[in-house]
Amino acid sequence: MPRSTNQKMKLLCLCRILWERTDEDHPMTVPELIRALEEWDIKAERKSIYDDMEALRVFGLDVQNRKGKDPGWFLGERSFQLAELKLLVDAVQSSRFISQRKSNDLIGKLESLASVYQARQLQRQVYVDRRAKTMNESVYYTIDKLHTAIASHRSVSFKYFEYNVKKERVFRREGKRYDVSPAGLIWNNENYYLAGYDHRYKEMRHYRVDKMAELAVTCLPLEGVSSDFDIASYAQKHFGMFSGREGQVTLRCKNNLVGVVLDRFGREVILVPDGEEYFTVTIRAVVSPQFLGWVFGLGDGVEIKGPDWAANMMKVQLETVARQYQKKEPVMPPPEG
Question: Is the pTM of this model over 0.85?
């Protein structure tokens, strides 16, 4: 039979057909494969299909042939199983630091790793309703640049901004650039943070990656970042990545909060029994409004025992919030019935 100019692409086209159109639940028979090849103007005979399938198997593809009920050829094992792709799609879809447009792009690429039938299942995965997405489209590439800087031991320079009520960017330091020696990236409270040594303030600080603009990797080497800097310890003691006064804080907790304490501070912390119903734990923490809010959220189950300055910060915080609500007229409950 006459050979078309596409005939040399026969194996490649077969590979693509198997990848996109088959899986364990959707095999293709030899006649179906032959018709699919004809879409590329490629002629094939039944015997040649068997030879091609063997060549693809030797090459390393998990090409399988099922006989009996619902027979046909299909691609079995893939780089990612469907369950793994579902997890990745859920993570991308629910991630706040990835913009909606970039999320759609990434999910489309993940779908290409499965058959068209499996991709439909990925499209119906969990959607986090009204999940706030970052408005900074460049964050995806900013993270890549930061990884490059960390790997090459180079400082970075960037502008840092907040949003005003009009959702407009307002740059800090009147638009002057920040010069930072990066120590590592932290994933906290669904946001990426860069922890590093700020050259201006001469101390370790952290910055939200999605609030960076015009980031550049400089030719300057790192400074102020010790070789034994523990990025995990830094992240653990900064509640919600808020700044404040750091110190050893002792908490007195009810026994039913053991799980809460271990989840927050790790299983390495030492729990000291304090009577029959309580225990104490001493942790290193940055006492910020976020930390005090965490303590308050546990009600009378947790008490800050020391140091005095930390307990006093909690007292002042409570009094300040109480005064704010005391200014308002009490709301009468609605009449019964």
Answer: no
